[in-house]
Design a protein that fits this description.
- This protein has 168 residues and is α+β, with helices and mostly antiparallel strands.
- It has a domain of 105 residues.
- The strands form two sheets. The protein has a three-stranded antiparallel β-sheet with strand order 3-4-5, with helices on one face. A two-stranded antiparallel sheet has the order 1-2.
- A hairpin with an 8-residue loop joins strand 3 and strand 4.
- Helix 3 packs antiparallel against helix 4.
- The longest helix has 45 residues.
Length: 168
């Protein structure tokens, strides 16, 4: 007479726990044979590149807008200086070019703007020169990434503009 365990094995039944392993194998085999989850894996591989591209576009747009403001400020300062205005009038005109109501309501931070003038109220016919510089701040982590990739050479971005006009 056979024991109960041996008898059940002979009738085609399997040991306890074996059905779980075979079900797991069938499930894993199904995932290997189909493409279920492939799009999710590909998306997670590409997502960091899309985020990096998006941050780059945001920072480029901000930097370009700042460059336009600084260039216009230098040109405005040179124009007002070309008509023999004094230094305080020139500086006020420069700040007014990027601020609706100085010192509030400014498109850029006025404390980070550096103005250098040369030959204000000089002799007629000579050149007046205005240099405006702005220390740009990153709002996304792209600045830290650029700093890491460049080895610390590109950590700070200063946007500069130069304008010169003949004194009238």
């Amino acid at each position: 007479m056979l024991e109960a365990g041996q008898q059940s094995l002979e009738q085609g039944e399997v040991e306890p726990g074996t059905t779980r392993r075979s079900a797991l194998r069938r499930l894993l085999r199904r995932f290997r044979e189909t493409e279920t989850g492939q799009a999710l894996v590909e998306f997670t591989m590409i997502l960091p590149l899309f985020v990096l591209l998006f941050m780059s576009m945001v920072e480029f747009g901000r930097a370009f807008h700042t460059w336009l403001l600084i260039t216009n400020a230098a040109r405005e300062g040179a124009r007002i200086a070309a008509v023999q205005s004094d230094l305080s009038t020139v500086q006020t005109r420069i700040y007014d070019s990027f601020c609706a109501n100085y010192p509030s309501q400014c498109n850029i931070d006025p404390s980070k703007v550096t103005i250098t003038t040369n030959n204000i109220q000089g002799s007629r016919g000579s050149m007046v020169e205005i240099d405006v510089a702005y220390d740009f701040d990153w709002v996304t982590p792209i600045g830290d990434i650029v700093n890491l990739v460049s080895g610390g050479n590109l950590s700070d971005l200063t946007i500069r503009s130069h304008a010169s006009m003949r004194l009238e």
